[in-house]
Every structure is written in structure tokens, then in C-alpha cells.
Design goal:
ATP binds at residues 59-66. By secondary structure, the chain is of the alpha/beta class. The chain contains twelve helices and nine strands. The protein has a five-stranded parallel beta sheet. A two-stranded antiparallel ribbon has the order 6-7. The protein has a two-stranded antiparallel ribbon with strand order 8-9. Bound molecules: 2-acetamido-2-deoxy-beta-D-glucopyranose.
């Protein structure tokens, strides 16, 4: 038994904490919320896992991919992202050279052999050289064990900006047709997304066997955020900093973001990123951003 684990691999585990967190803290991501909750809950409740859970999160910057990984980690491990069972690799930092992948495979093996319920997060997949990710394929596959190590209870999460523009186009079309963004379904995006990253040389997943061997369980789209979501992020961040949430300040901060496309100005170009630094710049008396 691993005492540091919170809820993972309990029987009849509903991960209610995760559900509440997703509902209250993640804004504008109805598809991601639903798919993630179901994927993770099903995985942890399965009596015997046949393969590790592999999730690929896609979306433009600031839409909540990293944030969601933190939510997952904090609902699974007591120490959240600081848990010794959670490993985050930032591509540009850890993989400047192809040879590094070998060290890194050793890390995965070493860590999973001491705790098979480990979680590995690969950030900035789109910066990974083409073909590199294939070398971790054996870890993600349907093997009973390899060299005495079983990866079937491990969670792998890939984060990528690749596919973000495609998602944005779909969201924009819905918007232009006057449809509610909540009507967008996973099926409107999932196949497009997997095709796009497979065919894009700069996605980190170009022609990867992880895709054509169906080793990625879910491609999860993160929609571009609108003004109202940025506004909610600002209020949440104020509460987070023990400030009195203030609608006017949230408005000022949300207005200061850049919205695209140029004409329609629907989606925040950086999502909810930089909210924290914008909040710092707000004069508490005038409730205006300092020049
Ligand atoms: C586990 O992973 C970390 C990186 O997160 C690495 O520094 C460490 O050496 C790994 N442990 C083993 C036993 O391989």
C-alpha cells in the first residue's frame, strides 16, 4: 500500500473531489471536464487494467491543460504535483537532444518499478522532435510486464498546443452559426484532432505508432476561451489570492486581454494565462490597470 495515494484505485471510487474541482475551477471546458472525469474514474475502478491510461490534451495556450493535470494530480496524490509519484517532463527542458530519451526511459522504468501508480506528464509535446515519442511506445502498450515491470496502472498525459487552431476553427464556426459552444461534442473534434497531430510534423506525434496502434485512449480538446471565461478566471484568481472578488476588476482584467480573430474578437489569444500578472497591475482604488 502506498500511503501517499489519495483516492486512486479504490473500489467504487467516484473521485467526487475531482468532479467538484472540475465544475468549480475549470472554465469553458465542458468536453474536457466530462471526458477526463469519466476516463479517470473508469480507469481507477477497473479491476484489472489491460494497459496504462494514456490521455492526450490539446488546445491553445492558457486553455487549462496544465491546470487540469494539476487537478488530477491533487485528487490522486496527497502531495499533488509535488508527489514523488508525479513526474512532469517539459520537452524543451528535458529533451534538447534525442539521446536524452534513453535516460528518460530509465526514469520511467525506475519510477514505475517502485510505484506502478505513477503519473507522467509530458508538457509541450509539440516541441518534441518527430519520432522521439515512439521510443516510449512499449510502456504504453498492452503488455503484461516488461523486464518484470508492469505499466498497466500508470497514467501518461501528453499536453500539446498542436490541434489548437483546428479546435478554434470548429468553435468559431459554432459561434458564427449562433450555436451554443456547449453543443460542441467530442465527436466533432476527436477524429480531426488525431488526424491533424498525426499528419503534422511539428506536433511531436507525427506518424507515431502511438496513434495508429490506438494506444492513446483519449484525445481531449480544450476550447478557446471567451471573455466570460476570462472574467471567471479573474474572479477565481482573486479568491485564490484571498482578495475580495471584484466584478469591476475582473472586467478590467478580462478587457485587457487580446481577442481573436481580429474582426470578431471572440477568443482570448492567451486564454486565462497572465491573469495573475494582470491582477497585480490593477490599482485597487481606481480598479484600473496601471499604465
Ligand atoms: C524518477 O524520476 C525522476 C524524475 O522525475 C528522476 O530524477 C529519478 O531518477 C527517477 N528515479 C528512478 C529510480 O529512476
Amino acid at each position: 500500500l502506498v500511503p501517499e495515494l489519495l483516492t486512486l484505485y479504490c473500489t467504487n471510487c467516484r473521485l467526487t473531489g475531482l468532479q467538484v474541482n472540475l465544475e468549480q475551477k475549470l472554465f469553458g471546458q465542458h468536453i474536457a471536464s466530462k471526458v477526463l472525469l469519466k476516463a479517470v474514474t473508469d480507469f481507477v475502478n477497473k479491476k484489472t487494467q489491460k494497459k496504462p491510461l494514456v490521455l492526450s490534451l490539446h488546445g491553445l495556450t492558457g486553455t487549462g491543460k496544465n491546470f487540469v493535470s494539476e487537478l488530477l494530480a491533487s485528487n490522486i496524490y496527497k502531495k499533488g504535483m509535488s508527489s514523488s509519484f508525479v513526474h512532469q517532463f517539459v520537452t524543451t527542458l528535458h529533451f534538447p537532444h534525442i539521446s536524452k530519451i534513453d535516460i528518460y526511459k530509465q526514469w520511467i522504468k525506475g519510477n514505475v518499478s517502485s510505484c506502478d501508480r505513477s503519473m507522467f506528464i509530458f508538457d509541450e509535446m509539440d516541441k518534441m522532435p518527430p519520432g522521439l515519442i515512439d521510443s516510449i511506445k512499449p510502456f504504453l502498450d498492452y503488455y503484461d510486464n516488461q523486464d518484470g515491470v508492469s505499466y498497466r496502472r500508470t497514467i501518461f498525459i501528453f499536453l500539446s498546443n498542436a490541434g489548437g487552431e483546428t479546435i478554434k476553427q470548429v468553435a468559431l464556426e459554432f459561434w458564427k452559426n449562433g450555436k451554443d459552444r456547449e453543443e460542441i461534442q467530442l465527436s466533432d473534434l476527436e477524429e480531426k484532432l488525431s488526424l491533424e497531430v498525426f499528419n503534422n510534423k511539428y506536433s511531436g506525434m507525427w506518424h507515431t505508432s502511438l496513434i495508429d496502434k490506438y494506444l492513446i485512449d483519449f484525445f481531449i480538446p480544450f476550447l478557446p476561451l471567451e471573455y466570460k471565461h476570462v472574467h471567471m478566471c479573474a474572479l477565481a484568481e482573486m479568491a485564490n489570492q484571498n482578495m475580495e472578488p471584484d466584478e469591476d476588476i475582473a472586467d478590467e482584467v478580462a478587457k485587457a486581454m487580446i481577442y481573436s480573430p481580429k474582426e470578431e474578437r471572440v477568443f482570448s489569444s492567451k486564454g486565462c494565462k497572465e491573469i495573475t500578472s494582470k491582477l497585480v497591475q490593477v490599482d485597487k482604488k481606481t480598479k484600473r490597470l496601471e499604465e
